[in-house]
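Researcher: First entry.
Model:
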Amino acid sequence: MKIKEATFLTMEPLGLLPFYRDGLRFPVVTAEEEQLVVQAGDTALRFVRWEPGASEEAESRLARSYEGQSTPYYHFAFNIPENKLDEAKGWIETVTELGKEAGRDISRSEAWNSDSVYFMDPAGNILELIARHTMDNGIQRPFDPDRDVQCLSEIGLPTRNVVFAVDQLEAIGIGSYQGRNDSFNPVGDEEGMFIVVQPGRRWHFTNLTAECYPFEVFVEGVGKLLLAEDEQGLKLRRN
């Protein structure tokens, strides 16, 4: 699936501007007090303002969907050319510190045949650059951040009922990736997927755990989706 837009909650959208504009070099579409929009390859990445206790007055339906008190943070990944992980890693190290685990700063997945690096933005979101060796997207030139961050290809979707969430997503045409599982179940494909997991699972290469915060996406061929958690589990709203 292709994620054309993704919208996340954050406390201070403009506080993220230097990181995404100057560090990651993402083109800026909108920079306002209420929202920051940057372009990450084929995906528009939107951060909208949220503050505790203000959900009822919030302008966006995304902000109104969250009534919690903890500051939202998310995990999302960007595809890069499958043969350029080392060069991309070198670039990110000039921007910010990489996450490490057992002394390593590259995550290797044999099951997915991919390699990744992890890092965080100033709001505490967990970002990942992933080189998927199953994709025919290699390049024969030096890695260029302005051209080679291709799209948003993963978004973490914590939910207390993984099976219930996956059933809803499959019902609208977003199928499981590499089979079904009741605790860790990616849905979608290598161009774009939701990582459906139980809350409390530790995100790789961080000390943070998966927590339930709403987000909104526009998926090509599916439409706009608001994904939020209620007492039963995932509450999926489709426009």
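Researcher: Second entry.
Model:
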Amino acid sequence: MRVKELIGNAGLFGGTQQVEIYFPEGSPDLILTSLTYELGWIFALLLSGILLLCIFRMFFILTNIKDHYGTLLISGGLAMFAMQVFINLGMSFGVLPIVSVSLPFISYGVSGTLLNSFIFGIVLSVYRKKDVIWTVQS
């Protein structure tokens, strides 16, 4: 109920009332709700658009890779990153139940940031070597 109250009071450029933000479930899980209330809907849509753009770019990279192992690496990373984004967006806007999934690169925490950095590093490494022809020597 608190999430829907904060989302309802958020304006285009920030909250309309002075409300103390407190989430008993933990702030990293609902960071987008807090940012939407503090900075407004334009910021929330811009941030969501950037994260969705990363997902679409990873999917575009996936379609250009011809190596089977590289395809598996990128599809696994894409699935992990996309599920984090979609679950957190759904939680923040009150569509999905609140579970402990942080927003990639926005919520604080070392393990989530490191995991997402590794995912992007693997995707970029596979994309960089997409044109290399591997030969097996006997």
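Model: Note on the second entry: The chain has a mean pLDDT of 81.
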